[in-house]
Amino acid sequence: MILPIVAYGDPVLKKMCVDINKEYPQLDALLANMFDTMYNASGVGLAAPQIGLAIRLFIVDTTPFSDDEDLTSNEQKALNGFKRVFINAKILNEEGSEWAFNEGCLSIPDVREDVFRKPVITVEYLDENFKQHTEVFDGLIARVIQHEYDHIEGVLFTDKLSSLKKRLIKGRLTNISKGKIDVDYRMRFPDQKKKR
């Protein structure tokens, strides 16, 4: 089932999310709905707060990035089919020199800005079967994980921009929160009771 994606301005996007356990109700259905919702919106990641749930859960599928002709064949191979569920994730380490990449977010449609992040991360997380993993990720996979991880920490990519950039996009962000934007996927806007 395709769920509405929560738009910029909704308080749930600024909440520190809570851990879940195996008893979380209908987790399999929730994960299936999250993947359906993400694919419907042409996303590569989706965090639970983006569908209104303040829980430490996000999903990633970087396959769409594997078509980028600017990447090496090894990078394309790593991205193709990288599909994961991250439950109760913790980033244990970030290393390397920060690099910029133009990021966007399904909750903030039509706003893209360069965000600086470290290229290598170590993440501890549970998968959909609650099996624990500690893994090192790099490149675009690390970036997508960091972006989604920020969501469960109550942080948006726009929070990482300079004050000048924030001032330049303030009007666009206000319009998004009021639902004054055309998108081709379902959204829930904080300033409107109706869903689109």
UniProtKB/TrEMBL annotation:
The residues forming a coiled coil are none
EC class of this enzyme? hydrolase
- State the Gene Ontology terms under molecular function: peptide deformylase activity
**Cofactor annotation comment:** Binds 1 Fe(2+) ion.
For whether the record's keyword set contains Lyase, the answer is no
Q: Does the keyword Metal-binding apply?
A: yes
Q: Where does Fe cation bind?
A: 105, 147, 151
Protein's UniProt name: Peptide deformylase
Q: What is the lineage of its organism?
A: Bacteria, Pseudomonadati, Bacteroidota, Flavobacteriia, Flavobacteriales
